[in-house]
Structure formats: structure tokens, C-alpha cells
Amino acid sequence: MHALLPTTTTLPLFDVAASRRIEARALAHSPDLMARAGLSIAKLALALRRDEGPVWVACGPGNNGGDGRVAAQRLAEAGIAVHLSHSPPERPALVIDALLGLGLNRAPAPELLATMAAMQACGAAILAVDLPSGLLGDTGQPAGERAVRADHTLQLLTLKPGLFTGEGRAHGGRLWFDDLGITPDEAASADLLGPAAAPARSQTSHKGSHGQVLVVGGAPGTQGAARLAARTALACGAGRVYVDLLDLSADEAADPGQPELMRGTAAELPQAVGVIGCGAGAAISDALPALLQRLPRLVIDADALNAIAADASLQALLCARAPASTLLTPHPLEAARLLGCDTVSLQADRLAAAQALAERFSCTVVLKGSGSVIASRGERPAICASGGPALATAGSGDVLAGWLGGLWAQQPGAPAHRIACAGVDAHGRAGEAGGVRRAGDLISQLAPSR
Ligand SMILES: NC(=O)C1=CN([C@@H]2O[C@H](COP(=O)(O)OP(=O)(O)OC[C@H]3O[C@@H](n4cnc5c(N)ncnc54)[C@H](O)[C@@H]3O)[C@@H](O)[C@H]2O)[C@@H](O)CC1
Q1: Is residue 199 part of a domain?
Q2: What is the pTM for the complete model shown?
């Protein structure tokens, strides 16, 4: 058993159906899985309990509850006061939530909700067994009106995707893992991203070796967004970075504060990676047909996504692009517009929504938000384990788009999916901070991670 994040490698995630298959096969040769699970929970509980008070263990009707009962027995054998009940003891030192795990299949009834509320109100830290009760392991959404907000979750046997995206990240607390000595014997359902290697820079390279990025966007009043993207592509190591700011007069500098940036257009730079849409406003619509047809690799963000969502002919041009050549970076509202649904239903299953978008437009999709999801046709989806609320600030999406463009310029042969995984993870790690990380500071934080 070990703490999980941050992870230094990409880890396999298994959805509920896959976890059940793995468990069923493992039980054939290792019938003591529940004993192992209970012991692991007891060990973690011993380390986490805050004082000599009783450990409150609330067990449900299935094997999740079984794990809890074994843990209670182990704790009692170790001389710890244990309170096995659905109602709280006086001043518990820790709560073990073993009400519901993988088997959650409906909204919890009022009695269970009352126990969950009592856990939350009792003042002690909550250790959830496998999954916080009421939280769906595949999507990270509560099945009913509430799920337990745990301080710690010990995942057992497999890592479940729902703990890493959407509401799951707010419910799991600190994540721990025990594989119970079992190596999964089937392919993962999704990847939990670890860091990727930075693009190589040879001793003999020159600026022409590291590609070109063209940022198109920045309507009057929102030029900062495009400039943030361009500055980030430069910091990422792209050889040359150009900006095409909508409505900027011909004699103005690309970015007065960043002399390395140049003016350019798609017609002049047919091999550049296009980063299009940042701060673009509605004016991007007119430029989009040429951009979609002309540039071999595109990162499409913000207002360019909104324009495509509203125009079937732009959607047709998007679908006609070469495979693995286009990367969309929508936040949930933009993604909902593209899919023609509302954000609540989109957020209810972020993995499925990202995959649906990738299939519909034959693109790689980065569905941003807590636990960004990366999906592409024919690829295993990935979830970003890094990042946090410090990134919830203006400009951080522009920085991501610029970083993706910068990475892609330096790796022209890489498919969009690989670029997306590498870039999103780096962006998340750079954004792990208390408080807020301003977009400008995020760029300098990203640069050393190259
Ligand atoms: N079988 C084993 O040896 C192992 C089991 N493990 C544990 O077993 C869990 C899965 O066990 P189960 O498949 O029994 O599933 P659960 O224990 O999560 O729940 C299943 C039971 O809860 C009921 N239920 C589902 N939703 C409900 C709701 N909203 N309100 C009230 N009751 C509800 C179901 O009807 C069923 O009786 C894992 O999460 C994990 O904790 C793991 O430790 C691995 C080893």
C-alpha cells in the first residue's frame, strides 16, 4: 500500500466492469483477497487516526462492507477501540467508510444518506475503502444527491477512473493504492498520465530544427490571450513563433513585451503548427476555412471551437482533415456546444463525452477541467492526474494551447494524442500550487519542465 500522487509513471486505470473481471479471475487463485484488503485498510487506519478515540467503521451490505469488517477485526486485535455501526460514537478518532464501493448501482436511500451525512459531520477524518460511498467508479459522479467526501481513499486491486476526473477529485481526498498482490491480466481501460520526456535538442540544432508555431487569435481587447499562447510556445522551445492578431494594424509589433515574437500569416507559413482561437472573438469564423484546409497541424481552442460548433460547414472541414493532425482543447461549456448537449450531462461522464467528441470530429480532444481527459479515435483515453484549482484563472487555457503548439512544432512526426498527453500533464504539474497561479507565472513554471 502506498500513496499514489504525484505519479512518476503512467498508470493503468480499470473501469468497474474490468475491475470485476480482474477480481473474479484473481479470486480463483487468491481466495484471500478480502483478508488482504482488510489488513491493508487497518494498517492505513492505524497510521491516520488522530488520537486514542474509537475508530468508527460503517459497513454496507456487500464486499466493500466485508473489507470494512475485516479491517475492524484487525484493528480490534491490535487493541484499538472499534465502533462497528451506522451511527457515530462519541468523538471518533477516524471514520472508515465501507458502505458502498464498486457495487454502487443506484442512488443511496435516505438511511444511507443519513449515515453518510453523520460521517461528514462527526469531525474525524474519513478513510474511504476503495471508493467514497455514493461515488460511481467509472465517472466520478455521485449516483444520488450526495457522495462521501473522504479525506483519504484506499483503492484496492485496481485504480478506478472516477477518482481522477470530474467530481471524483473533490471526493477522494488523498489517494492510496494497494494492488493486493495481483497484477491485472487485461489491458487498461484508460491511462493515468505520468510525465513525458521533453523533446530532444541536439548540440548541432538551430532554430530551424525546432519548428514554427503560428498563433491566430487576439481580437481587439483580448489580444493578451493570443500573446500568452505565443509566449508559451516560445518558452516551450519552438524555433520560431509568429502571431496573426485579428485587426492588428500592419505596423504594430507582434508583442511589444516579447521581441522574439514575429508577425506572420497562414499563407506565409504553410508548415507552421497553428494555435488558433485564443481570444479571437467572432472574427475567427472568416479565417477558419483557410486555416482548417491549409495548416497541417492545428491546436484549436476557445472562440474557434465556438465558431465550429455553430457552423456545419466548418465541422465538415474539420472532419476532412488528416488523421491525428488536429487537437481540440474545449472546456466543458465549449465541449457541450460542440456535442449539442448541456454541461451537466457532459460532466456526468467526462470520459464518454471526450470520446464522443473525438469520434464525431476525428480529432484528438482535451476535455479540460478537473482531471482533464484526452481522447482520440483508436487510442486508449487518458486522464491527467496533475493540476488543481490554482489553474482556474484567466489565461491558463491559452498557456496550455501555446504549450501544445510548441511541443508539436518540435515533434512534427508525433500524433496529436501523444502531444496532448505530454502537454496536458506538464501544464498540470506547473499549475500545482496553493492559491492561484497567474498565467504569466505559469509560463515560467512550465519552461524548466522541458
Ligand atoms: N471480492 C473480494 O474478495 C474483493 C472485494 N473488494 C471490495 O469489494 C467491493 C465490491 O464489492 P461488491 O461487488 O459486493 O459491491 P459493494 O460492496 O460496493 O456493494 C454491493 C451491494 O450494495 C448494494 N447497493 C448498491 N448500490 C446501493 C445503494 N445505492 N444503496 C444501497 N445498497 C446499494 C448492492 O445491491 C449490493 O448488495 C470493492 O469496492 C472492494 O471494496 C476488494 O477489496 C477486492 C477483493
Answers
A1: no
A2: 0.96
Asked if 95 and 234 sit in the same domain, the reply is no
Q: In the numeric block, which cell numbers belong to residue 433?
A: 500550487
CATH number for the domain that contains residue 307: 3.40.1190.20
Q: Quick one: which H or E segment has residue 313?
A: helix 312-319
Ligand 1 atom 33, closest CA:
104
24 falls within a domain? yes
Please write the tens of the pLDDT for every residue from 304-359.
999 999 999 999 999 999 999 999 999 999 999 999 999 999 999 999 999 999 99
**DSSP for 403-443?**
HHHHHHHH-TTS-HHHHHHHHHHHHHHHT--SS---HHHHH
- Residue 193 Cα to ligand 1 middle (Å): 28
The residue segments making up the domain with residue 79 are 2-187
Q: In this predicted complex, what is the ipTM?
A: 0.96
Q: Kindly give the number of the ligand 1 atom that is closest to the alpha carbon of 157.
A: 44
Q: Residues near ligand 1 with C-beta < 6 Å?
A: 23, 27, 33-34, 37, 60-65, 67, 100-109, 112, 129-130, 156-157
Same domain, 383 and 257: yes
Q: How many CB atoms lie within 10 A of CB 16?
A: 22
Q: How far apart are CA 234 and CA 261, in angstroms?
A: 8
CA angle 137, 141, 147 (to 5 degrees): 90
Same domain, 103 and 62: yes
- Quote the pLDDT of residue 208: 86
Residue with cell 467526462: 350
